[in-house]
Amino acid sequence: MILRFPGTGDGMRFLVRDRLLGFGDDYWIEDDHGNKVFLVDGKAMRLRDTFELKDTRGRVLIDIHQKMFALRDTMAIGRDGESLATIRRKRLSLLRNHYRVSLADGTELDVSGKILDREFAVEYESELLAVISRRWLHVRETYGVDVVREDADPALLIAVAVCVIHLAEKERGED
């Protein structure tokens, strides 16, 4: 199961700047109380899109990069040098954006909704794990990641949200 990563705080709602994958840029993701929780460390001068999600002490929690030699656009998420997940668009999804997150342990997460509008959900076997939305925020250029399950890993779910947004924007030609 997707266990919560230790040391991420008690808050389960996070505010993410909309242009998170401005590679080379560094900035903070905050919880719903305005506390800095994760640092996004964009890696400039790389051949592929890549960044690290760090905790407040500078420890790398998640590595995200674009797979170079995949047939379809694919993002990979890793932790401690090990592969954690691979994200790609589902082939047949005409009405809504659907992405499949294949975790290293063989389980899969489903991401669906209006990705470019920042209104979508992350589910595991039809059970809601996180809701990504702009609706309840008044801060421009920001969206929220509301982690529903207490045993979920917020860093992983934030990374999943960022990856599907990046893939959807790339497919549309925005990146």
Automatic annotation (TrEMBL):
Family: Belongs to the LOR family.
Pfam families assigned: LOR
Record-linked InterPro entries: LOR, LOR_sf, Tubby-like_C
Spans through the membrane: none
Protein name: LURP-one-related family protein
